């Protein structure tokens, strides 16, 4: 059988498809990592909120036990504001992380489309190769039939001459 003329193109398309699949896989892993980080930050914010409430209540109990006045209440207010500022920083990190997750999601979709395109191109060249192989087999079969016909004609003519 003659060599397939587009074999190098087929090899390139196979390699491109494999690379696209790997890039898609990497993008999915990166997205999962970023989503996990977002969940961790959200859990951290929730933990800090609960912790703030518990600390403020504890601080309030200490102030009441000491019998502190306005000064103690002001200190408690500043303490609570500082804890709220920490929570706000974590909330900002969460918003930033949400944007990172959206970006990673868009990258996954982009990689998915590239992978689908690479698969489509590979399928097209594979279909071309199948047609080529089918054509080569048909040509070979036609040649064999022609040779068989010629042999049959030669035998018939040889018998006719006798």
UniProtKB/TrEMBL annotation:
<dbReference type="InterPro" id="IPR031869">
    <property type="entry name" value="YscO-like"/>
</dbReference>
<keyword id="KW-0175">Coiled coil</keyword>
<feature type="coiled-coil region">
    <location>
        <begin position="108"/>
        <end position="149"/>
    </location>
</feature>
<dbReference type="Pfam" id="PF16789">
    <property type="entry name" value="YscO-like"/>
</dbReference>
<protein>
    <recommendedName>
        <fullName>Flagellar assembly protein FliH</fullName>
    </recommendedName>
</protein>
<dbReference type="InterPro" id="IPR053716">
    <property type="entry name" value="Flag_assembly_chemotaxis_eff"/>
</dbReference>
<feature type="coiled-coil region">
    <location>
        <begin position="6"/>
        <end position="58"/>
    </location>
</feature>
